[in-house]
Design brief:
This protein has 306 residues and is an alpha/beta fold. It contains twelve helices and five strands. Strands 2-3-4-1-5 form a five-stranded parallel beta sheet, with helices on both faces.
């Protein structure tokens, strides 16, 4: 819709988790390194946690693009006891033709699969996204599955990716044996003000557009209303481009960002924060000066570190 008008090759702020568009913030690089370390070091369990929209799935998608060929990967995207048993999910993830069998039969089939992979010089990696939906019994079943590993090599590695509620579950006293097997953990926080501005320009660059299509104050406004949560940044920036296109704006000013946030909040369908009831450009511009200062200080610090 707006792509041609702004000289873009595609939507720079898609809500879909695109591994090719992973923004290399310090936290996201750390999470990616943790996944890579977990595979190389044959860690039994790796945990990646973060708030909704923090970019956890995007990190996983990026990681999978470069996974080693001797790793058989199975992915469970949204486990739930209400719509299926864990072993059914695992059978589906690794394309085992045993779905519908009882749990002992599924367990035996999966162990046979792991042993067959090991005989071929391969091992299995099970990634469970939205792992906060796992019940205590499901987590205990995963712990028992990890016992199939022998003393020297890992036949199965497990990555849990989930929201902070997952950490609350793992802190239960009756799951302490499980926690002791977690070799690595990384938590994804929101982006800083400077990272948010850099993220916006990074995504615009990837789409072949002008990195300064959103001016500095517009980037500051995006941070104010999103708190640096990547999914919310994408949502707000995408809608701002629609508004800008509709009004033939060559660049996106902070007022347009505020208009999008206010319009979404007016009817209660918004996850944005600190949204005023009406737009007062002069007051908002004054409020954004502090955020703008954070952005510029962050850029100066980044340049000095480089």
């Amino acid at each position: 819709m707006y792509e041609t008008f702004y000289g873009l090759s595609g939507k720079p702020f898609s809500l879909l988790p695109d591994g090719d568009a992973l923004f290399p913030s310090k936290r996201h690089r750390r999470a990616l390194s943790m996944l890579e370390y977990g595979v190389v070091s044959q860690a039994g369990f790796v945990v990646i946690s973060g708030e909704v929209g923090a970019g956890k799935t995007t990190v996983v998608r990026h990681f999978l693009k470069n996974v080693r060929p001797d790793i058989a990967v199975g992915i469970i995207t949204n486990p739930s006891a209400s719509i299926g048993r864990l072993f059914d999910w695992i059978a589906l993830a690794f394309d085992l033709q045993k779905r519908g069998a009882d749990d002992p039969a599924l367990y035996d089939a999966f162990v046979a699969f792991l042993l067959a992979q090991y005989a071929q010089g391969r091992r299995a990696l099970l990634i469970i996204d939205e792992a906060q939906n796992l019940t205590r019994q499901m987590l205990e079943d995963l712990r028992m599955l990890s016992n199939v590993n022998n003393e020297r090599d890992m036949l199965l590695q497990i990555v849990l990716v989930g929201q902070p509620e997952m950490l609350d579950t793992l802190q239960r006293a009756d799951l302490r044996q499980f926690v002791q097997r977690i070799a690595a953990h990384c938590h994804l926080d929101s982006l800083s003000a400077a990272e948010t501005a850099a993220y916006i320009r990074y995504r615009l660059n990837l789409a072949g557009g002008d990195a300064k299509l959103f001016d500095d104050l517009a980037c500051a406004a995006v941070y104010r209303f999103t708190g640096g949560v990547p999914r919310l940044v994408n949502l707000l920036c995408d809608q701002a481009l629609v508004y800008g296109f509709a009004e033939d704006m060559p660049r996106i000013p902070f007022k347009t960002i505020a208009e999008v946030a206010i319009d979404r909040s007016r009817f209660g369908l918004s996850a944005f924060r600190n949204v005023p009831e009406s737009l007062s450009p002069a007051q908002l511009k004054d409020d954004l000066k502090t955020v703008l200062k954070e952005i510029r200080q962050g850029w100066q610090k980044g340049s000095a570190e480089e």
